[in-house]
From TrEMBL:
It comes from Kistimonas scapharcae. It holds the Pfam family HemX. This is Uroporphyrinogen-III C-methyltransferase. Residues 99-126 form a coiled coil. Keywords: Coiled coil, Membrane, Transmembrane, Transmembrane helix. Residues 1-34, 367-394 are annotated as: Disordered. Residues 372-394 have a biased composition (Polar residues). PANTHER family: PROTEIN HEMX. InterPro entries: HemX. The chain crosses the membrane at residues 39-59.
């Protein structure tokens, strides 16, 4: 019980007791006890109020705590909130990689355009020395071809001299080794023992032109005593039947004896004579022999050249009439042509063209721009996966 209740109970008890001391005077009580009891009551009220407030706060806190989300819910909300930003970051990385690829492609395109521009400028004729060098290289190659295929030392010498004049016109210090090799090739050609190749070829060609004029061996081996023109004149002058009969008998005899061949100029075995219709074959075969000699002359085949001329002479002696100035001149010319030595030791004149080709290639490499070596590395680093890893490291 509280102090107030105890005080009240004591007061009631005191009233119920008989007033034994009624006649006596009551002593006066001090006022301090009443004050203490009031303070205690006030303290109890304040304590109760505090307890009630603390309980209300606890209940309210419990309600608030129950309304708060769990940790998993918080993480889910955080992930949901960060998902758009992550997608945006990945998109940015992909766009950066594409931008790097576009820059590399642009740089390569610019480099190619520069190369094409320089080539176009040279093709338009701005660099005259390139044309002169190309022409000199063509002349050197042509000289080698003439010497190897036609064995024409004179033409090869002329072509090398023309190429040297073109190199003098270019007037570049780097051409010194080329001109030195060209001078060595010219000196080697000058040391070759020359013969008149063109003159020999023309002589053979002239002989082929005279084949149609050469007389073939007659089928009967001799000429008739009286030509047909004289027989016609006799018939015109003497118109008797006796003369006419005699002339007819003579013509019949000549036709009969014309079917035989009588040779008295040698003691060799008699070979069968071709009929007159084969005259074209005889002349054409002789022409082919001389053409074979011309081809061997151009190719430098000494044995084939001599064999072809010997066959031509044998063919003339067998199937043509070997009397008269025409056939005698042909035999003498063939004998003179057989005395010509066509076999020559030709030098190698390819040093100059090889040196000039190397100079032109080096000049082209110096003029064209070189692609940087870091292009491939940059293209590898520009891949999306690499870009993401670099961004993640930062």
């Amino acid at each position: 019980m509280s102090e107030q209740e105890q005080n009240k109970t004591g007061e009631q008890g005191q009233k119920s007791l008989p007033d034994a001391n009624a006649g006596k005077e009551k002593p006066s009580k001090p006022r301090s006890g009443n004050r203490i009891s009031k303070i205690g009551v006030l303290g109890c009220l304040l304590g109760l109020t505090a307890i009630a407030g603390v309980g209300g706060l606890g209940w309210k806190g419990d309600q608030i705590w129950r309304q708060l989300p769990t940790e998993a819910q918080l993480m889910t909300r955080v992930n949901d909130a960060l998902a758009p930003s992550r997608a945006t970051h990945e998109t940015i990385l992909v766009l950066k990689a594409e931008l790097n690829d576009t820059r590399e492609q642009y740089s390569r395109l610019v480099s190619r355009m520069d190369n094409l521009n320089r080539k176009l400028v040279r093709l338009q004729g701005s660099d005259r020395s390139d044309w002169l060098l190309a022409e000199a290289e063509y002349l050197l190659r042509l000289a080698n071809q003439r010497l190897l295929t036609m064995r024409d030392v004179k033409s090869a010498m002329t072509l090398l001299s023309q190429a040297d004049q073109l190199l003098i016109t270019v007037d570049e210090y780097g051409l010194f080794p080329v001109r030195q090799a060209l001078a060595e090739d010219i000196a080697a050609l000058k040391a070759v023992e020359r013969f008149d190749l063109e003159g020999t070829w023309l002589k053979l060609n002239a002989l082929m032109g005279r084949i149609e004029k050469l007389p073939l061996l007659p089928p009967n081996g001799f000429k008739p005593d009286q030509p047909e023109s004289q027989t016609e004149e006799v018939l015109a002058s003497e118109d008797t039947w006796q003369q006419h009969l005699e002339t007819s008998a003579l013509e019949t005899w000549h036709a009969f004896t014309g079917q035989f061949r009588i040779r008295t100029d040698n003691h060799e075995a008699v070979t069968a004579l071709l009929p007159p219709s084969e005259e074209l074959y005889l002349r054409q075969n002789l022409r082919l022999m001389l053409e074979q000699a011309q081809l061997a002359l151009l190719q430098g085949q000494e044995k084939l050249y001599q064999t072809s001329l010997a066959n031509a002479q044998s063919w003339l002696q067998t199937w043509f009439l070997n009397t008269g100035p025409e056939i005698t001149a042909v035999h003498s010319q063939l004998s003179a042509l057989q005395q010509v030595t066509i076999l020559q030791d030709l030098p190698d004149i390819s040093r100059s063209v090889v040196a000039l080709k190397g100079y032109v290639d080096d000049l082209a490499e110096q003029r064209l721009p070189v692609t940087p070596a870091s292009t491939e590395k940059t293209s590898e680093n520009s891949k999306p996966g690499t870009a993401e890893s670099s961004e993640a490291g930062q």
